[in-house]
Known about the structure:
single chain, alpha+beta, five-stranded mixed β-sheet, 6 helices, globular
Amino acid sequence: MRLITSPSALRLGLHHVRVWKLTSDQPLLRADDGLSAEAAAGSWEQDAPELPAGYRKLLADLGYEGTTPAGERLREGVRSRGWRSHGAVVDAVSVATLRHGAGIGLHSLFKEDEGSDLVVTRAAGTERIVPAFSTKSKPVPAGDLLYGLADPDGAVEEPFAWLGRRDCDAASRQLAPDSGEALLVVLGCPGEDAAHSEAIGATVAHLLAELRPDVTLRPVA
């Protein structure tokens, strides 16, 4: 699999998209290996960096000024409602989101995806997505940000995620109980260098090395 960042996405300042493939010979989703509230707080609150302004800028440049980015929303939610564990893999992604302020994608991979390209681009306005935990497809407005499997022309053939006034992942790419492979997608944001995206991946890798050493992370070029 190759990663393709389209010219329209580059013009938004997304110069440092990073993707990793997660693989295990065991199911990635398990209920008995997650982080306690205390451990989660210790993993992100201590010495947490300021949330980058670039995530708000990205939404403003998409036409949604004033929309709260996913990382900020998650921080607000955890502080007001408390931490809920969903197993080590999801928890590691959540901690990285809390610590770095990034919206991070975690998507199932299938054998038939081998040889496909993953493209990050702005929507043409013809795409549709069935959001996670839903059965009804939604149209994606032209100009919103998408990523997913590329068609031969470099457009998104199957959206994995949509970022605009709302942000959502595709129901078809939610991790299943037997998922053993997944993609971790870090878009980064305008104004941040490659170190920001790499730090997000490093946070996930560090936690999984402690909690799920059976899970390997391999960069997708």
